[in-house]
Every structure is written in C-alpha cells, then in structure tokens.
Amino acid sequence: MLFPVVFSQSSFPSSNSRGGVTLDSSPLVCGQSGPGATGPLGPPGEDGPDGRDGRRGAKGGKSGSPGNQGKPGVKGRKGAIGKTGPAGPGGPRGAPGQTGKRGAKGESGDEGEPGAPGGCNCGPSARSAFSVALTKSSPTEHRPIHFRHILLNEGNHYNASTGKFVCVIPGVYYFSYDVTVGQRHLALGLVHNDQFKTRTFDTNSGNYDVASGSVVVQLQRSDEVWLQVYNSGHNGLFFDPFWADSTFTGFLLYADNDYLTAAERKANKNST
Ligand SMILES: [Ca+2]
C-alpha cells in the first residue's frame, strides 16, 4: 500500500538556509526502488592552507616631474628692539660758531681797596720846588751843605737831614744859590751825582760880599743835587739870623713827556 506523502513547503526550511533541511519543492512519489532522495547539504569544509607568495611585480614607472614652486610664506612679525650699542669714537672738532651778540651791561662791582701810594704826590701836573736857607756859618767842607731852614719844599724832594735834593720827577730843573760871604774867600760848587756841575769862587778879605750861581740840569729819577765847598780853607759862607741869609733854590722847569704820560694814565685809571 502506498501512501502519498506530501510535505508542505512551509514545514521545511528553505534550501538556501545553511544547516537546515531542504526538500525539493516538487512532490515526491514513493513506490519505486532506486537511490534515495538527496540528503541535506553538509556543513562547509574547513579553509585550505594559504597559497605561496606571488612573483615580484614589475618596477613602476619613472619619477614624476618636480612640482611647481610654492607660494611665498606669510611675512613674519617685527622683531624686538635690540640693546643700545657702545658709544662710538668722538668725531672731529667742529668749526667755531658765530660770535654771539653783545650781552647787556652788568651791574657795577664793589668799590676796590685804595691803591698803594704812587711815586709822587704831584699828580698829572708834576710839581717840584724848594728854597732853603743856611742856619750855620762855615759848614763842613767837601760834604753836602745842610740848609736846615726850609722856606719851601714842594713835594719834600729836598732832604734837610742830608742836604741833598733827590729827583722824583724826571725832567729839566733850574738851580741857583745866593749866599753871603764873610771875612774869607769862598769856593762853592753845585754837585750832580758826585760830579761838580758849576763852581763859584769869590775872593773876599776882611769884609762881606755876596756870591751866586745858577744852572739848568736834566735829571733822572733818584738823581741827587747839592752844594759843597770844594776847596779847603775857602769856606766864607756866612749866616746871621738878623741880617744875612744864604739860600739854595731849585725847581722843576718841565717834566719828561714819558713821565707825564704815565702819570696821566695812572690818574685816569684811578678815577674810573
Ligand atoms: Ca768879591
């Protein structure tokens, strides 16, 4: 007896499903001998061993041409200020500048100390004069005669203690002497720096007489002039306080120009 067996498709898994049972969709008919139906597919076999390495491939093509130059990069930031360097050597001296304008007049300074006394107290108008008289008869011979009675001594250039006139103002001078002679002869001379300039000799026996002399002399500063008896025993110079004088006189005629110029300059300097 035969019993058709029909399997609905829905009772078996799809042939596509691995591991499941797959039946042919066509209807199966029993009743015939022969090979059995195809069994379900077995599970997949294991992976085979790795194959051998392939041969080395052919070498690649030539190197490509260089690429184009790239664009300039972005400008960098400004660096920090460096340290100050050492001072350099001094440069050459420059040309002098132009003279500036004259400044305003300053205030007057303090008054200065008085200056030292000058060489004379005569000032710009140089003055020197003296007239002196004898106070004793027959003075010492061969020595300057001392005329001790001062009639005038402008500038004190006649020194009564030495009997000498000492020149302070260089220039031309006039000297004269008028003397009384008593009882004896007189040999009287005028001396300039130890040299007789003039001599006067008066002969006189037993009475009174007068003698005189005069001379103009160029004197330098510190020159000396005096009267002196030049011959021993001829010393008839006479003096009486009541009626007889003997005088010696001298004065400046004019001073040297150099002295006057210097004195004027000094006077102007002191007055400013
Ligand atoms: Ca005489």
From TrEMBL:
User: What SMART domains does this protein's entry cite?
Assistant: C1Q
Q: Where is the composition biased (Gly residues)?
A: 85-94
- Matching Pfam families: C1q, Collagen
Q: What is its main location?
A: secreted
Cite a GO CC annotation: collagen trimer
In its keyword annotation, does this UniProt entry include Secreted?
Answer: yes
Q: State the SUPFAM superfamilies in the record.
A: TNF-like
**PROSITE patterns for the chain:** C1Q
Q: Which domain of life is it from?
A: Eukaryota
Alphabetical UniProt keywords: Collagen, Extracellular matrix, Secreted, Signal
Q: Where is the region Disordered?
A: 1-122
Q: Which residue ranges traverse the bilayer?
A: none
Could you tell me which residue ranges the C1q domain spans? 123-259
Q: Where in the cell is it found?
A: Secreted, Extracellular space, Extracellular matrix
Bias class Low complexity marks the residues at 1-17
Q: In its UniProt entry, what is this protein called?
A: C1q domain-containing protein
Write down the species: Periophthalmus magnuspinnatus
